[in-house]
Task: inverse folding
């Protein structure tokens, strides 16, 4: 099988160096005002997500209310970036989010396995966009990637991007199944060259999901792609990020790797609904001077 030809070089990843650099981001010291601003920024970057078989329009509407106003006004907490649901529930999200500017994202392409025939996956995308989704989260076929059929993966991303029309495309790698940092780097390059607007670590259905080292590999791929092309690609770590402290580590890593331009929901997202409660609790503590009980911050 001939080797995949990428438009730009894909350097090997030094695993030891990546892990050491990622660990260094957890050692940064932040002043209280910077922490509070960072936590509010993290909320503005969150994609609140419900992807369960028992999801209902009512559950989606409740999640949308939470996305619109995560906390009472006195905490100056911004709305979340998006609500992510299955395609059949996009109309419920569209109704609940009308006029807010909060994006509606839909998982598609046979989420979470990505093992459906391509035409079915593309029809899934077109249906979600027609229903009102402004963002599509697709999953690549990890089976094809791990079998070395990289051109097939590239072609499915190109076809999915075309099916999206004006909707933004997030490409999910499921990094916990890609096995190596080199594979994550190559998947990032393939997705960016194929037209992805965002690259995303995980579905949240596989462990491990997002980690600092894996996300750093993706951020560095985005940085090099930007230097080569002038095109800015977004990054979305998803799954396994649960604490405010972790969120701040990611924001420090983004700033030091890509700069302030990427510190915006347009270019960086958290796919971690479980993260919101801890961030809210920390914002409330820093504002009020004391911790509230665990039920102070509602889930919806």
Result:
């Amino acid at each position: 099988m001939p080797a995949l030809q990428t438009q730009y070089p894909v350097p090997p990843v030094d695993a030891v160096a990546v892990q050491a650099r990622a660990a260094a981001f957890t050692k940064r010291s932040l002043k209280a005002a910077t922490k509070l601003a960072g936590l509010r920024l993290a909320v503005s970057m969150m994609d609140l997500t419900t992807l369960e078989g028992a999801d209902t329009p009512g559950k989606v509407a409740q999640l949308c209310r939470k996305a619109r106003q995560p906390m009472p006004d006195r905490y100056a907490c911004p709305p979340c970036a998006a609500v992510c649901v299955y395609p059949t529930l996009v109309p419920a999200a569209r109704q609940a989010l009308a006029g807010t500017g909060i994006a509606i994202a839909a998982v598609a392409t046979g989420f979470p396995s990505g093992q459906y025939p391509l035409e079915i996956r593309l029809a899934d995308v077109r249906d979600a966009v027609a229903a009102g989704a402004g963002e599509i989260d697709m999953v690549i076929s990890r089976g094809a990637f791990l079998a070395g059929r990289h051109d097939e993966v590239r072609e499915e991303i190109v076809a999915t991007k075309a099916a999206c029309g004006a909707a933004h495309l997030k490409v999910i790698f499921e990094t916990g199944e890609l096995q190596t940092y080199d594979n994550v780097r190559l998947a990032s390059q393939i997705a960016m060259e194929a037209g992805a607007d965002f690259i995303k670590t995980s579905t949240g259905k596989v462990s491990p999901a997002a980690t600092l080292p894996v996300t750093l590999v993706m951020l560095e791929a985005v940085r090099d792609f930007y230097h080569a092309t002038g095109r800015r690609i977004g990054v979305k770590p998803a799954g396994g990020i649960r604490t405010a402290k972790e969120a701040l580590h990611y924001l420090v890593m983004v700033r030091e790797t890509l700069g302030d331009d990427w510190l915006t929901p347009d270019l960086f997202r958290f796919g971690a609904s479980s993260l919101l409660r801890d961030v809210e609790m920390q914002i409330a503590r820093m504002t009020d001077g004391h911790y509230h009980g665990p039920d102070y911050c509602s889930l919806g």
User: Anything to note?
Assistant: The chain has one domain: 19-288. The two ends are 51 Å apart (CA to CA). The longest strand covers residues 103-108. The mean pLDDT is 94.
